[in-house]
Amino acid sequence: MLWDVSESTDVRLIAELSRQDPVGYAQVFAGSVPNKRSAYRQFESIIAALNYNPPRDPFARQIDHNTQWRSGNDIGGLSLTVNTEIGSGTLTSTTAWYFWDWRPANDRDFLGLNALQLSEAPSDHEQLSQEFRWAGNVSERVDGVVGVYAIKQELNSDPFHREELGPDQWRFVSANAAAEANLRTPLLFDGFGTNSSPGLETFSAALFGQLDWNLTDRLSLLTSLRFNYDEKKVDFQRTVSGGAPLATPMLLALRNAQYSNQAFKADITDDNLTGTVTLNYAVTDAINLYGTYSTGFKPVGLNLGGLPTDAGRIMTELSIIKPEYVQHYEFGLKTSPFDNTTLNFVLYQTDIEDYQAQVQTADIAVNRGYLANAEEVQVKGFEVDARVRLDSITLQASYAYTNGKYVKFTNAPLPLEQVGAPVAFIDISGGLLPGISKNAFSFTGEYARPVTLLGASGEVFGGFDTYYRSEFSSSASPSIYLNIDSYTLLNARIGFRTDDSWSAFLWSRNLTDKDYFEQLLPGAGNAGHYAAVLGDPRTWGATVRYSF
């Protein structure tokens, strides 16, 4: 809703509410690999002993989970924005309140076995934020922005997060055949698990300012500073619960070796100063050069999903993760060599100290992974994009080369194939960062022609876009088995849009029905199996939009 209060003031109120309750499963079993454990503890040996054979083709999209998957979300909130002209600029006030109620549950072994049979994390999130920002002309040659921002957030479990074992878990933890007798005790693991209550309160505030100096008609300088303050309070409690009563201390010890009580509290404050300097030079009306140096910061991190153990010791030093510091360098060239044509080039390098990596561990008590600091990370590369419009046809192409690696990461968890080695952590310095393809290419085209349809003036249009990305690592600790092959996707659309209010079109994603993975991830416990998040198959649809 928009109100024009006066010639100099307007007010906008936005209310949002959505409920999502998707049907289906996010992961499917994708395969297994040999690791460093004994032959007895290899995944294929385990499932043979349990008389289980999972579906072997992930693209058959056959789910064999025995826990009902849920991912319900209730999201909503209010935001109020007030714009008032003051002097040579505009003062903007934005007040917002939002909530997110999340109700996830899934089968953490990705199998039709009752091993890691339940993982659920019902959580309530709430946040309140306020920003005041003034933007306008400081002088004839200087534009500026100055403001203050604050946000308060709370996260609580509702009532707790639950991890639970099943009766088949005995075979995954048996060291050898001699250990089977006790581990196969009826009801030893069935229903045994943990209840976690992570409570988190955060408060962040910032003072920021930006000046854009037109030094000459062709030379400009952009400078900005931001002071950040962060406060985090956490109270994490995890207790073991469930399972049948056991008669002997030995059996209790076997069961309690899977999960342990954990607890920690923290009250952390931190502050930092970041900034940007950009020099821009218009060589001609059609050629623009710029260079940028900027710094960034990610506040201290907290692990609220349980901590890994090392030789039975809970690694409490990982409860708090050091903040992340970023330095970014960028050089760019923007050109318009011909009418209706653009050609741009960007060269960049980003150096990150104490990078906050989301890693996986073989410890089943941390089956969602945890945050860890990689001492140094570097991402560098270049991008080229071009666009041309020829009458009714618009074509656009882009290419990106990206090289992302751990410069130094000396205490990373073992990759999938090395689980069972004499050590629990290794040096992966020089390894690839996950999710980064060295080569990516896109090409799009659209044809549009003015027409009159059903008495409405507008245009008929048709278009396509294709996207290619090369192989990339899907694991925080690089694994030869968790690399995703290159793939190319093709999307298309055709429809009609008016000059003012409505549009209607048919569309298709993944028109060639390409089978591809979005992610490969180790199964909880890293027994040698891994799961996949599949890319969408060929999908068709129709969309009608109306604006008023």
Task: Explain what this protein looks like in three dimensions.
By secondary structure, the protein is mostly beta strands. It has a single domain (11-546), classed as Beta Barrel (Maltoporin, Chain A). It has helices spanning 43-49, 169-173, 180-183, 249-256, and strands spanning 2-4, 9-20, 28-32, 70-86, 89-106, 116-120, 123-139, 142-157, 161-165, 193-214, 219-241, 262-284, 287-298, 301-302, 309-310, 313-314, 320-321, 324-335, 341-359, 370-390, 393-408, 412-413, 425-426, 439-453, 456-469, 472-473, 483-484, 487-498, 502-509, 517-522, 529-534, 539-546. The strands form 6 sheets. It has a 6-stranded antiparallel β-barrel with strand order 5-6-9-10-8-7. It has a 3-stranded antiparallel β-sheet with strand order 3-31-30, with no helix packed on it. The protein has a two-stranded antiparallel sheet with strand order 14-17. The longest helix has 8 residues, at 249-256. It is globular and about 85 Å long. The model has no long low-confidence stretch (mean pLDDT 92).
CATH topology: Maltoporin, Chain A
Runs in which pLDDT lies below 50 for 5 or more consecutive residues are none
The percent of residues in helical segments reads under 10%
Average pLDDT works out at 92
Number of domains: 1
Portion in beta strands:
over 45%
Query: In whole angstroms, how far apart are the ends?
Result: 12 Å
Annotation field: number of helices: 4
Shape category: globular
Q: Please state how the strands of the largest beta sheet are arranged side by side.
A: 5-6-9-10-8-7
CATH-level-4 superfamily name: TonB-dependent receptor, beta-barrel domain
E-strand count: 32
